[in-house]
Amino acid sequence: MVSHSSLNDFYQGSGASYPEGVSKDIGHFNVFEAEKLFDKVTGNRTMPYSRRDYYKVSWIRGKSTAEYADKVIDIPQNALLFATPKIPYHWLPADGNQTGMFCIFTSGFLDERKSGVVLDELPIFQPGQVPVFPLSPEESAEVEYLFRKMHKELASDYAFKYDLLRNLLLELIHFGQKLQPVSVLSTTQNASQRIVSLFIELLERQFPLESPRQLLALRTAKDYATRLAVHVNHLNKVLKEVTGSTTTETIHQRILQEARVLLKQTSWTVADIAWSLGFDDVPHFSNFFKKHTQVTPVAFRQ
């Protein structure tokens, strides 16, 4: 099943103590040493596949694997992993030798009024990006320093420690963004790029599907063009120019990604999945899925 993991779920399942004195005005932030936490149910540190209700940045030491709906990323040694509530993933350590640190935080902690940034507009948290970065020994040492400093400051009684922690977290995020290709970090947008950004944001808002009763509000290229107040031909033209894919191809790929998640991680019937994703019937959905994956939905689930 695709589960949702709230902050309370995290603290109850990990054995960690919920921090005292955290107010809604501050937003939530905490930092941990990974080897000191474990799952109370399984007795290990595996992070199950789920859509978490918080952001997470992890410094990982040791061989492990990060599994997403459409890709599996092997982590040979040191890595920096960024997680957003929009994208579920499953972290699986190869053995019991994993160490490292991680921090969790809510969007309120990096509220635009406090930090000057819009969290979901940062390149590191954009859909479609590879959110895991291998680290050299030197880079790993820099990341460890930032985490150790956050851990130390969080335990202090400094009156402005949350302001300092916010700055340290942003420094960690920018460290990760510097590891991305330059093309991903370009902030110079022309009109076409702005339309594409708005389209992608609108597309991502349709997901995740959380119930068989939930139906995609926008399904076709015309639906998105109407919502964006542009002609469908113009939307298709700029998407092709910027991304290399047409509007319909982009929509289909995102629907296919969600279909994979629902087939693998829920007990919904194929008919329920087909209906939620906007298909009139199961044969239509099955033909669509097989065209893109070469297997039927039933075969993929098995």
UniProtKB/TrEMBL annotation:
Pfam families found in the cross-reference section: HTH_18
Coiled-coil ranges (or none): none
PROSITE patterns for this protein: HTH_ARAC_FAMILY_2 (PS01124)
PANTHER family linked to this entry: ARAC-FAMILY TRANSCRIPTIONAL REGULATOR, TRANSCRIPTIONAL REGULATORY PROTEIN
SUPFAM superfamilies given in the database record: Homeodomain-like, Regulatory protein AraC
Domain HTH araC/xylS-type: 193-302
A molecular function (GO) term: sequence-specific DNA binding
Signal peptide: none
Key words of the record: DNA-binding, Transcription, Transcription regulation
Native source species: Filimonas lacunae
Superkingdom: Bacteria
Protein known as: AraC-type DNA-binding protein
Record bears the keyword Acyltransferase: no
